[in-house]
Write a structure and sequence with these properties.
four-stranded mixed sheet; Nucleoside Triphosphate Pyrophosphohydrolase; three-stranded antiparallel sheet; alpha+beta
Length: 170
Amino acid sequence: MEELFPIVDELGNVIGSATRKECHARTFLLHPVVHLHVFDEAGRLFLQKRSESKDVQPGKWDTSVGGHVDFGESVEVALRREAREELGLSIRNERKLYSYVFQSDVERELVNTFCCEAELSDITIDPVEISEGRFWTMKEIRKSLGSGCFTPNFELEFAKLTEALEKESR
């Protein structure tokens, strides 16, 4: 059975549903996703390297956790499910940073972005989803931007994340 996603307006209100295939077929049906940025105590950001078997952006470094919200599932439940599936992480201390609409050449997503703190010992990588993962310093990330090692979505997300963290620290 194919996955069913909610179709939402730009405020996140559910207005319908569609299959994963429909949402990824250049229909640009707006569907919600979750992103989680996992920081360690030293302020480094955990990034996952997407498996070579992924159909979108294989082998690229990406957001700590990212995934679709299933139809009938809340954003918060999807966030916890994805963190558990991808990193074996049970999150309790997450906080929402922002939401935005992202459009690629195949889909349109309402991205709900959160952050939390965890240590490497809290993380167990799912080898089907992720080929590797590690904590990066912000300096390492900035130095590698534009090199092609990150997904385009992560590069956009990193700019938004940096801006949000700077606002918080003021």
